[in-house]
Amino acid sequence: MRREYVGGAQAARLSAALGGTTGDLTITCNDLTNWPTGTGGTPFYVVIDRGTTSEEKILCSSRSGNTLTVYNVGIVNGRGADDTSVTSHSNNSVIEHVFTATDADEANAHINVGHPKIYYQTTAPTLPEAGNLWVDSDGTV
Q1: First-to-last CA distance in the chain?
Q2: Mean pLDDT within 133-140
Q3: Which end of the chain has fewer CB atoms surrounding its CB within 10 Å, N or C?
Q4: Distance, CA of 55 to chain centre
Q5: pLDDT tens across 103-122, in order?
């Protein structure tokens, strides 16, 4: 799934505590200026309490003003994303827009799986894979 990113999203703080269940789907903050909006159905990740034992990454579906809505479609809930646990967070906890391991893994899979490969070697491969290209050391294809 495509996600939204912005470069100017400053760290913010929760202006209300966030409960520790997947049913807690609204995150209220002090200032989300320049944060993603989720426009066009492109969710985005946030992290609360980064670097602490209560760190939680959350996939959000939208932002309206200073309120984030947690992604919650069918069996997919955005709380506890990216191998973190759903936990409660206190008022004034730090929240940040973040790139995740999930994002990196999906990008790597897109680039490295199912796409043609170019091999530069002096002998032709014994069992070439369909769709791949072998380039001889003299530059001929």
Answers
A1: 36
A2: 60
A3: C
A4: 15
A5: 777 766 656 665 566 666 66
Residue 34: both structure tokens together: 């320049």
Q: Which two tokens stand for residue 21?
A: 């269940």
Distance (Å, whole) CA 39 – CA 14? 22
Token pair recorded at residue 44: 């985005």
Q: Which residue has the tokens 């760190």?
A: 55
Residue tagged 């170019």 (tokens): 118
Tokens 């492109």 -> residue: 42
What is the value of pTM for the model shown? 0.75
The three-state (H, E, C) secondary structure of the chain, written as one string: CCCCCCCCCCCEEECCCECCCCCCCEEEECCCCCCCCCHHHCCEEEEECCCCCCCEEEEEEEEECCEEEECEECCEECCCECCCCCCCECCCCEEEECCCHHHHHHHHHHHHCCCCCEEECCCCCCCCCCCCEEECCCCCC
